[in-house]
């Protein structure tokens, strides 16, 4: 099977610091791939390169087998890679609909759209409601309320819904449960599974081992700027994963990259 | 932490407790039924409501004190005429402040543009239409410079426009040689410069074209901010520029467009000012920056960006106009006007802070 998103020998240097040292990465269709690694292992640089926020100094990124060069997150987005940032990247004072369609608003057809540049609020609201419904976020009743009036879990839900609605190839999620309580985390994990069920592969960056082991199909362990190995959560324990991540245990030979 | 040694398949056991608990997570906390919260929510949704209420209250209070002296078509439209210049400039100031910026150079750009319109006509003998277009371009260019320095060079808007204020004002004095073009001359040679001074009389109510322009401008801006993608982007940039960038807004373009539009509107204000005072004078409009910021703040636009509406700015300008004229009709010392406006400014910002707490 061909990977949806693949990186080969990515290199990124910041001055004399090598953040990525010939890092490889593969994401297959329909899977949840967790990326774990200690602080400073270079996993966020890898993710930023995949989402277009950082331009690698060497190596290549392939989307559906074709090389791509992203110069900004907007590039990656246009190619079908949506990212849910840890900060969520939402404008708190604007409504849920405004936020979901930020940067890709729908204009009214005909004269009012072309000449008066009027937005088609009704249509955007409909789509926003439909997308939130699909992910079971119906409890958010008023689609026009400001995002700042939502709870942390609801905001995360809106961000995930936005990514799932517009991501056609890949959804990247950066620490989606980090700021949430136990119940809200549970809800977001269900959301992640729902998104996978709809056929979108997901890259999940997390420090939370129970969450990673619960939802991931495969776990990419990053260490010292490159991939140490990829494991299946059913074959290893959490302590093994942490041991590989921190270097206390050698990566299993058969799986080593 | 639970790093058990057995292979972890399902969720760790401690989380099974969660499943048995109530599943409502993303529902609303509807405990807050107090009237205070309801008001807070309403104001959060419609920020121009506060200045509208203040405007109505001040009209009622001064109306009771002054009776028909204030409630005549003449007096009421006089207020409109007196606030037209500040109103137009404040509309420009509004869109800049919505992006969490500030434009201290609005008054200077306004004066320079009017001087360009006048001098191009009288010094170089250009057709007045072309001079006016040159004046409008001049204002837009000044705005572009502001926008470039803020968006691309990434200097703080306060510093950029503080510098531009001095630069533009000095250019204005140097270029005009401090020379006023008299009203009579303009009326004879180039009456188009006084276009915005033309009047429509509707049963004692006098509307100048400048007043009509101010109202139409505010309506157009209100539409653009509310109904177009550009308007939504202006709010997003003012709210959180990094979030806006990540969600696909071209922050730099939006900022530059906002400062350019502000410059263009200021140039229109310069044109309207010729209509208001009749002459082209390089020494007018010195207080336009402070007066426009006052109108914006009283109008409920947050100085921190991303909140408020341009309609509120119009109400803010009108509040100042009502206070100024009413107190003069009452024969009070002009200082009372400043004192009361000072209180209004602080009150408006206090209310803004309170509305922001709606999310907590």
Automatic annotation (TrEMBL), chain B:
One of its GO terms (cellular component) is plasma membrane. The chain crosses the membrane at residues 49-71, 83-110, 130-151, 206-225, 254-274, 286-304, 311-330, 336-355. It is a multi-pass membrane protein. InterPro entries: ABC_transp_permease. It is found in: Cell membrane. Its main location: membrane. Keywords: Cell membrane, Membrane, Transmembrane, Transmembrane helix. It comes from the Bacteria. One of its GO terms (molecular function) is transmembrane transporter activity. The keyword NADP does not apply. PANTHER family: ABC TRANSPORTER PERMEASE PROTEIN YPHD-RELATED-RELATED (PTHR32196), RIBOSE IMPORT PERMEASE PROTEIN RBSC (PTHR32196:SF72). This is Inner-membrane translocator. It comes from Roseibium aggregatum (strain ATCC 25650 / DSM 13394 / JCM 20685 / NBRC 16684 / NCIMB 2208 / IAM 12614 / B1) (Stappia aggregata). The lineage of its organism: Bacteria, Pseudomonadati, Pseudomonadota, Alphaproteobacteria, Hyphomicrobiales.
């Amino acid at each position: 099977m061909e990977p949806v998103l693949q990186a080969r020998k990515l290199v990124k240097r910041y001055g004399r610091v090598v953040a990525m040292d010939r890092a490889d990465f593969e994401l297959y269709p329909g899977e949840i791939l967790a990326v774990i690694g200690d602080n400073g292992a270079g996993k966020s640089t890898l993710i930023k390169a995949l989402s277009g926020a950082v331009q690698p100094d060497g190596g290549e990124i392939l989307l559906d087998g074709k090389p791509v060069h992203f110069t900004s997150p907007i590039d990656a987005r246009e190619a079908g890679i949506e990212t849910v940032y840890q900060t969520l990247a939402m404008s708190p004072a604007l409504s849920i609909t405004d936020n979901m369609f930020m940067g890709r608003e729908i204009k009214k057809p005909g004269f009012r759209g072309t000449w008066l540049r009027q937005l088609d609020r009704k249509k955007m609201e409909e789509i926003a409601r439909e997308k939130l419904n699909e992910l079971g976020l119906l409890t958010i009743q008023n689609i026009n309320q400001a995002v700042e009036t939502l709870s942390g879990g609801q905001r995360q839900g809106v961000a995930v819904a936005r990514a799932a609605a517009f991501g056609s190839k890949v959804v990247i999620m950066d620490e989606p449960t980090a700021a949430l309580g136990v119940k809200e985390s549970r809800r977001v994990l269900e959301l992640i599974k729902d998104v996978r069920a709809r056929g979108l592969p997901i890259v999940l960056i997390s420090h939370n081992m129970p969450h990673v082991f619960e939802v991931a199909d495969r776990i990419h362990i990053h260490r010292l700027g490159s991939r140490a190995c990829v494991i299946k959560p059913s074959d290893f324990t959490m302590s093994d994963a942490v041991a590989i991540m921190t270097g206390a245990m050698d990566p299993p030979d058969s799986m080593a990259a | 932490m639970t790093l058990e040694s057995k292979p972890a398949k399902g969720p760790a056991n401690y989380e099974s407790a969660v499943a048995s608990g109530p599943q409502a997570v993303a529902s609303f906390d509807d405990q807050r039924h107090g009237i205070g919260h309801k008001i807070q929510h309403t104001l959060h949704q419609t920020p121009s409501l506060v200045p509208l209420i203040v405007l109505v209250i001040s009209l009622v209070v001064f109306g009771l004190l002054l009776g028909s002296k204030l409630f005549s078509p003449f007096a009421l439209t006089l207020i409109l005429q007196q606030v037209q210049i500040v109103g137009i400039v404040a509309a420009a100031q509004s869109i800049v402040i919505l992006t969490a910026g500030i434009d201290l150079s609005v008054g200077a750009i306004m004066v320079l543009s009017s001087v360009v319109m006048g001098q191009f006509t009288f010094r170089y003998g250009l057709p007045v239409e072309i001079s006016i277009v040159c004046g409008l371009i001049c204002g837009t260019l000044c705005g572009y410079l502001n926008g470039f320095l803020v968006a691309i060079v990434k200097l703080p808007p306060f510093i950029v426009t503080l510098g531009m204020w001095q630069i533009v004002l000095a250019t204005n004095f140097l270029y005009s040689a401090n020379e006023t073009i008299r009203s009579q001359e303009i009326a004879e040679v180039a009456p188009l410069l006084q276009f915005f001074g033309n009047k429509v009389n509707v049963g004692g109510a006098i509307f100048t074209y400048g007043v009509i322009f101010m109202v139409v401008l505010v309506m157009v801006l209100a539409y653009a901010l509310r109904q177009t993608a550009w308007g939504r982007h202006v709010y997003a940039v003012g709210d959180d520029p990094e979030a806006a960038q990540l969600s696909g807004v071209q922050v730099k373009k939006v900022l530059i467009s906002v400062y350019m539009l502000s410059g263009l509107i200021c140039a229109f204000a310069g044109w309207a000012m010729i209509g208001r005072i009749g002459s082209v004078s390089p020494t007018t409009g010195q207080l336009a920056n402070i007066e426009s910021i006052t109108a914006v703040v009283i109008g409920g636009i947050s100085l921190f960006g991303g909140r408020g509406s341009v309609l509120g700015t119009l109400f803010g300008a009108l509040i100042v106009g009502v206070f100024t004229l009413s107190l003069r009709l009452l024969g009070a010392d002009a200082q009372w006007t400043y004192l009361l406006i000072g209180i209004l400014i602080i009150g408006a910002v206090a209310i803004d802070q309170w509305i922001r707490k709606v999310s907590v």
